[in-house]
Amino acid sequence: MYEMVLKLAVFACVTSVLRAGYDLPARPKNLTCVAQQDGTSTLRTITCEWEAVGRQTTYVQTTYTAIVKERLSGETINVSTHDNNVVVPVKTYPHFMPLEIWVVAHNLLGNVESEHLINDANCFVKTNPPLAVQAFSDTNFSTTLLVSWTTPIAKECMELKYRIRFCPNGSQTWSDVDRNDTVKPSNPFRLQNLQPDTVYVIQISSKNINDCGFWSNWSLNKTARTPEAQPSSKPDLWKAAESDINGMPLIQIICKDPEFANGKIKAFNLKEKKGGSWEEEHFLVNANQRGKHYLKRISLADKKFAKVCVTAVNSMGKSPEACLAIPSKPVDHLPIKEMNIWPHNGQLFLEWKHNNTSVSEYVIEWVYDGGIDWQREKKNTTRTIIKGPLKPFVRYSVSVYPLYSGCIGNPASKDTFLEQGAPSEGPSINKSNPGYDRVHLVWNEIPLNLRRGFITHYTIFYKKEKDIHAVKVPPNTTSYTLKPLLGNTKYDVWIQASTISGSANSSHHSFTTLKYAPGMVEGIVVGVSLGFLFLVLMTISLCLYKKDVIKENLWPQIPNPGESTIGTWSLDYPVKTETPKENSLFGICVLDDACVCDVKHGCEEDKASLSLKKDKYLSEEHSSGIGGSSCMSSPRQSVSDSDEGADMADTTASTVQYSSVVASSGYKGQTPSSQPQHSIFSRSESTQPLLDSEESQDMLVQEGSRHFQLSFTHGTENQGTAERDDFKQMQLDQQDFCPIDEDAEWAPADSQSADGEPGSVSSYMPQLNGYRPQ
What we know:
The chain has 774 residues and is mostly beta strands. Helices cover 14% and strands 35% of the residues. Belongs to the type I cytokine receptor family. Type 2 subfamily. Keywords: Glycoprotein, Membrane, Receptor, Repeat, Signal, Transmembrane, Transmembrane helix. This is Interleukin-6 receptor subunit beta isoform X2.
């Protein structure tokens, strides 16, 4: 007894502890039960699901029990689980019988029941989709399709209602048939208000006719095409600007099939207005061609505008007419302004502003590499989405055209990308023109289909050995001059094109700068030439200024004694002169054109010296060159003194005097004539160097101061030799020159010759006949 009490106490303590930490299980919520039809027409199971509330642990678990009770018979079916769903098997489904279904949650602390579902057994049924769905057209009705099917469950078990939906093939927008029309539908059922010559996709679902229970899944797609009909809308007419081989503007007429073609378009009829009449042409359509049709090119060279009208033709008839007026110049209306375009979620959004109420519609055109497309918008539209298929990394030129009753207005245009990426390749360097300290680079733009985005800038990299430099240039530049560079240096250059998403480099290109800049060689040559020319001119000027000195040094005047004509000067007088005796005295005077000097004895040495100096100056003043008629013109100094002897020595070494004395008395021994005779002294100048024998004798004479020795030379060699010997014996110690007045006469004292004969009187008289020209 004591042990029993102890056990009860322990049990009470454990129960109190459990209740202190845990509660009863939570009530299951949102209980749903479905009798799903399997592949056959029978129903074998009921599937129930609920929402479990509260926590479960390994020490305190919650068990769920689903109970299905047939209310009329009271029969129940129980299935337990720890999950939140359960499948209750049913041997025979009780159609048209009420059922009650609920769930009990149980743990150590107690039980909790869910809500009870009480309904007709068929209201828990979800049948299979309708079977053998068929759709076919009626040739008499181009806007209808007939649909037939079979019920998924026998009518004896459950009566059904249906729902039907359809859409054009490829569309994601479904259209539902009115539910009231499908409560007890006829079979087959006619779908109405469809588009002719359109393929439709059809689906059917079924449910308990009492509008309880669950809709079945949709049946498999069934497609059918409606019959053709006459086109009910206009063709979509547009144009594309082109040019001929001569650059003249051309318009390519393009059109799309009508939106409601109601059949396959087989041809287009085009009318062009020329003058006051219409010219019609028929264009057949290729059976495989769909979408855009290029009809005709029209020249606008001699037109203000072109107007065309087009109709589409199918097997059932013609469409309404579409017309388009294309001016050679855009119509001068208010332009479209503030056009913006941007990509978003894989689409291109377009927005514009246009304050013109006369617009009938807008055409949105986008041109890409190798193609063109367009769409039409209503006149009150200012924002739209481009509906055509667009690709990323493709450049589109988008334009908005206003239309004024079919006449095209002035558009607004912008370029855009749906998505930008790095260029597929870099620009190609076309050529480089290197100079001395610069290079001019020219490159080709990246083709549009390879740019994959807007070029933000170009970067030119150039490298010399290990030094790399970079220059950024604008994106609209295709040439650039790099400077300053080093001359005669090899550089490696490449160009990088960049977008907002990346960059791409061109291939490397090498060049070598020039060794000399253009014009540098010419400048050097011109400078050297000018310097040389200046030197030549200075040399020529110096030569002209010093021509006499140069002439004396390069071409000295050396007359030929053999060709001298001094021997023929006094042909009117006897050739031979009387040889004077040893002790005879005579005087020598040099005759000038205006002076005659007589010889006088007894002059003092200072007077003789003064006379010689005077004669020297007179000879320099009146000299006229070789063979001239001058007195005392010899450059040889005959009298040496302390003042001028040293200076004159240089001159005597290079020149010699040639003289001839013609005496009137003839040779010694001849009988003198009764007429007074005169001795004539003639003299010529020459730069002929002296012979060695003459020069030695000359030097001997110069050593004696105050003495003068004359050398006389005749025209012939024999005469010159004889007279030279006579003059060598003359002693000038006893004779001196003495200056006298110009017309004075001097008579020497009588003297006797060595043999006792009286000496002939010698005197110098003025020259009678002058000098003969040489």
